[in-house]
Design a protein that fits this description.
The chain is an alpha+beta fold. 65% of the residues lie in helices and 9% in strands. The chain has five helices and six strands; from the N terminus they run βααααβαββββ. It is elongated, with a radius of gyration of 24 Å. The two termini are 13 Å apart.
Length: 255
């Protein structure tokens, strides 16, 4: 009996819409922290340079802002991460089901323990990264405030450094959103592939990277084992494992 040819599913990339929404929410968080820093620290500092005990006042106010935002981040980060892990999961599963049904497969997805475990891993990683953006922002603000004090209460220098901090934080937020939405998409894909009994995939290089890894370009079209990953640069990896990697895969269904 002639063996049926495997079906190679199309690439299912992460949602650009969800990625941009993730970016906007993190930018919004940074905007809120910035507003508190300007209201509680920069404006009073600028107006009351002659105030007695200004260094003690600055220390007290900085601690108050940081403590308030430590509490806020503990609340905001899990909420934000849950939204985007959930949206990414729903987006991928909806698109995969549509592809499978067009190919004649009648399948449905259940809430399995394995998929849930993968989502919890993604949730934990994203909570940590979201919090780190806010914490790093505040650490840089604290350092800049004390540099301003040491520089003879250089308020203009402080304002300039705060603008630089804004830029650094916003760039990092964009990198995290891009990287994490891709990683979540890949985690869901791997989990659902395992449940469907899919064991192989084809590595697909993305042309979206400004500075693509040569080894990833060469791997384009390579078939690999989903459990082990692809052997690239002397290690077994999956698409999106490396920071900045935008590669994906096409699942192979053996008939």
């Amino acid at each position: 009996m002639k063996q049926k040819k495997p079906i190679v599913l199309p690439l299912i990339p992460p949602s650009v819409r969800i990625q941009k929404e993730y970016e906007r929410m993190m930018m919004g968080m940074i905007d809120e922290i910035r507003a508190d820093v300007i209201r509680d620290i920069v404006k009073p500092f600028k107006n009351d340079l002659a105030m007695d005990g200004i260094t003690d006042w600055l220390s007290h106010v900085m601690d108050a802002v940081i403590n308030r935002w430590s509490y806020n981040l503990d609340r905001i980060a899990p909420e934000m991460a849950k939204v985007f892990v959930g949206k990414s999961k729903s987006n991928y599963e909806r698109r995969l089901l549509s592809i499978l049904r067009r190919r004649g497969f009648t399948v449905g997805f259940n809430h399995s323990q394995y998929v849930e475990e993968q989502m919890q891993v993604a949730l934990g990683e994203n909570i940590g990264l979201i919090k780190s953006v806010g914490e790093q922002y505040l650490d840089r603000v604290r350092l800049s405030v004390w540099q301003s004090v040491k520089g003879g209460y250089d308020v203009e220098g402080l304002i300039k450094r705060l603008r630089e901090i804004d830029g650094m934080s916003e760039r990092r937020a964009k990198i995290i959103a891009n990287d994490q939405i891709g990683k979540i998409n890949d985690s869901i894909e791997n989990a659902r592939a395992k449940e469907l009994g899919v064991t192989k995939a084809i590595w697909m290089h993305s042309s979206a990277s400004k500075e693509p890894r040569v080894s990833h370009v060469k791997a384009n079209g390579m078939e690999y084992d989903l459990e082990k990953g692809a052997y690239i640069d002397h290690e077994w990896i999956h698409p999106r494992d490396k920071i900045g990697c935008k590669c994906g895969k096409r699942l192979i269904i053996e008939l």
